[in-house]
Specification:
heterodimer, A: mainly alpha, 2 strands, 2% strand, B: mainly alpha, Ferritin, 9 helices
């Protein structure tokens, strides 16, 4: 399925992945229909909550906000969902950088809608995190003070129009490969959020692919622009899957909890295999001289991204870390008087017992 | 007036006036994306920008067909210079703070709503259909801007001060919107009462003073703009113009 072949841009590159999202949605409904182990409304009074939690996970049922869960499970999910939400919000910047200069009105409209979707995903994911007992304000504070991370990929600059295409194709493509398995995550609100997010992400990947397709078959300058963008975004996109399995700190426990379903390296391999075929259709070169089909593994051999660079970017020294977080802090600070005004207005109406206009 | 009685160039200028108002408003609103006071507002401002951009595209496409010189929406948006743009000055003014942006949105939507409503009954069927679609969207824009004007006007001392300053700054630019034009499909002069009927109660509820009428800068409809427009266009058009004839 991941090696899904698509002949042209009309079929879209993510159709196979979309089928998996739909399969996850069907599985989610089937699990709900099967019912949970034990009585319908949760464990009997004398059931050990840890045992019940484990039984739910083993039965592929979803953990819901009202269920008992281990603290570490809760903390892992908060960290992961919040980071995902922060990534959507910070990710608005590199693409938003090209809204004003989009080279046609049609492209401008699609890009505006895409960046708007990302704000919507951020809102949706913050709401999913809030079901675990944190507030959005707390999470935003953790982002602004650097105590929670966002995807390191957004610390790279968008230097040309083709970068918008490369982000759609490679970055959103990698995000989908990462996120499709999360549609089967054991935590119900996150799994349901991811089903919705993945459907929209597949549209995003398609628009990126179409941008590159158009550029690659355009003028020599457009073609060069597309190749330059792919050259710069390829390895950072591979690094999006995180450190190699041998160095990944969170993986094993997350796999046992069915938060994570595949290892970093497995997902990275799927992404590479998917991209090689798509690059062929685009007639663009992936910047890896050692990329070749391995008959024995039935997968492509490829050059690993520079994980030392990944660690530098994660720790704050990528090309745009300072710029991205400064921008977010400034927007937050510049908006504080507006948020205070809205709160003051609502408070006045409540005191006067007059109907407030809805926020 | 029957559209066939009006010279094509005049009809074209009117269409471009409508289209450029929407296009330039969309370009300004797009600047807010990823910088709004809260996430919900990023979504809302992008949404309004998309509405304006959508109307602009329909109007520009129609204008290009009416002109019959082979110009499509992109040729009209990207290859005209500032002196050929027909938008009112109000929409090209910089975004300022959130209060200025809301004042601009309040005034432009309170003008566009009665305008599009009247245009739905004009004899130009294609224009009437575009106006019918845009009218519904603009009703939401007016609602959104009205709610924020009230919240900011009647919020904190600081927000009141900023909102009043914004209304005072933008008000003079509203006069140009209603410059009489008997050859237009809808004469803007007849829209000012509806505009005031929408705006004055909002200002009153927001505890804001309605500015006195006085200075009334104009010129946008004949291509004499503020200094701001050519910067806006330089940014909007730079990539398209760097690759003549390319498809995107």
């Amino acid at each position: 399925m991941y090696g899904h072949d698509f002949p042209g841009p009309d079929d879209g590159p993510a159709d196979g992945l979309l089928e998996q999202v739909e399969a996850a949605e069907v599985a989610l409904r089937a699990a709900a229909d099967r019912g949970r182990p034990g009585v319908a409304d949760g464990p009997a009074a004398d059931t050990d909550p840890q045992h019940y939690f484990t039984a739910l996970i083993e039965a592929d049922q979803k953990i819901e906000p009202r269920d008992w869960m281990p603290d570490a499970y809760r903390k892992t999910l908060i960290r992961q969902i919040a980071q995902h939400a922060h990534s959507e919000i910070i990710g608005m910047q590199p693409e938003g950088n090209w809204i004003s200069r989009a080279p046609s009105l049609g492209r401008k409209a699609i890009l505006l809608a895409k960046v708007q979707d990302e704000a919507g995903h951020g809102l949706y994911l913050y709401a999913a995190a809030e079901t675990l007992g944190v507030t959005r304000d707390e999470l935003v504070e953790l982002l602004l003070t650097g105590r929670q991370k966002y995807s390191s990929i957004f610390n790279y600059p968008t230097l040309g129009w083709a970068d918008v295409g490369a982000i759609g194709w490679l970055v959103d493509g990698a995000a989908i490969v990462n996120q499709v398995p999360l549609c089967r995550c054991s935590y119900g609100p996150y799994a349901r959020a991811m089903i919705r997010v993945c459907k929209e992400e597949s549209f995003h990947q398609r628009q990126g692919y179409e941008i590159l397709h158009r550029l690659a078959s355009g003028t020599p300058a457009q073609r060069a622009m597309a190749q330059d963008a792919v050259d710069r975004w390829w390895y950072p996109s591979l690094a999006m899957f995180g450190p190699p399995d041998t160095d990944s700190t969170h993986s094993q426990q997350s796999m046992a909890w069915k938060i994570k379903r595949f290892s970093n390296d497995d997902l990275r391999q799927r992404f590479v295999d998917m991209c090689v075929q798509q690059a062929g259709v685009l007639d663009l070169r992936l910047p890896d001289p050692d990329l070749r089909w391995n008959e024995q593994r039935q997968a492509y051999d490829y050059t690993q991204p520079d994980y030392a660079e990944l660690m530098r970017v994660i720790s704050g020294d990528g090309p745009c870390n300072r710029q991205r977080i400064d921008h977010r802090r400034r927007a937050h600070a510049d908006g504080s008087w507006v948020r205070e005004a809205a709160a003051a207005y609502t408070a006045k109406r409540q005191r006067e017992d007059r109907p407030a206009v809805a926020a | 007036m029957n559209p066939t009685d009006v010279p094509t160039q005049t009809r074209l200028d009117h269409l471009l006036g409508l289209a450029d108002d929407a296009l330039v408003a969309a370009q300004r609103l797009g600047e807010w994306v990823a910088a709004a006071p809260e996430l919900e507002e990023d979504v809302a401002l992008a949404n309004i920008a998309l509405d304006q951009l959508g109307a602009a595209r329909l109007l520009l496409t129609y204008a290009g067909e009416l002109e019959g010189a082979g110009r499509d929406e992109d040729a009209l948006a990207y290859l005209r210079d500032d002196r050929e743009f027909r938008n009112a000055l109000l929409v090209e003014l910089p975004n300022g703070d959130f209060a200025v942006t809301m004042a601009k949105l309040l005034f432009v939507s309170a003008y566009q709503l009665p305008l599009y409503t009247a245009l739905t009954g004009c004899t130009d069927e294609r224009l009437a259909a575009i106006a019918g679609k845009a009218r519904k969207e603009v009703a939401y824009h007016l609602d959104h801007a009205s709610l924020w004007t009230v919240r900011l006007g009647d919020g904190t001392e600081e927000s009141h001060r900023r909102m009043q300053a914004a209304v005072d700054e933008i008000w003079p630019y509203t006069h140009e919107l209603f410059t009489p034009d008997p050859a237009a499909p809808v004469d803007p002069a007849g829209l000012r009462d509806a505009f005031l009927a929408a705006v004055e109660p909002v200002l009153a509820t927001a505890t804001l003073d309605r500015p006195a009428d006085g200075w009334a800068p104009s010129g946008g409809r004949s291509g004499l703009h503020t200094e701001h427009l050519s910067y806006l266009l330089a940014e909007m058009q730079v990539l398209h113009r760097a690759h003549p004839g390319a498809r995107w």
